[in-house]
Amino acid sequence: MRRSFLSRLQVVLVCAVFILMPAAYAAAADADAMISRIQKAYEDIRDIRGSFSQKSIIRDLNKTETYKGDFSIKPPHKMKWSYKGRSAQDFIINNGSVLIIKKAENQAYKGRFDKTTYGQTPVALLGGFGNIRDEFTTAAKGDAVLILKPKKPFGTVASISIAVAGEGFPIRSFVITDTHANVIEIELKNIMLNTGLKDELFDPQLPKGISIFDQGL
Question: Residues of the chain with pLDDT > 90: what percent?
Answer without folding.
Answer: 28
